[in-house]
Amino acid sequence: MKEKSKLLQSIIEGIQEKKGKNITTIQLKGISGAICDYFVICEGNTPTQVSAVAESVEEVVKRNTKETPVRVQGRQRAEWIGIDYGNIIVHIFIPDLRQYYNLDHLWEDALTEQVSTVN
Quick check: helix, strand or coil at residue 9? Predict the structure, then answer.
């Protein structure tokens, strides 16, 4: 994944702005049965941070690309928020739920990349 789209870069920037951690991108483009081109998965330590990361992603994406999500799910409990941008779906978890659902390993034949965390 040498060349990232502006949308993908903006999503990562939004996550990093609120200190989201363990950021993984999973390239699903071209994989049979995939529902989008990319998953972006990350964590926040608490539901409050998960909410802040989700808000940051939406703000940065809107500012940089003028795009808004098709749908956002999970805001109420903020333990797992999913943001659907059509060809990219963002998953923001608290650590326990990320480990439980293990989306990082759902698509074993997909190209995955760990993104550096900003300190």
Answer: helix
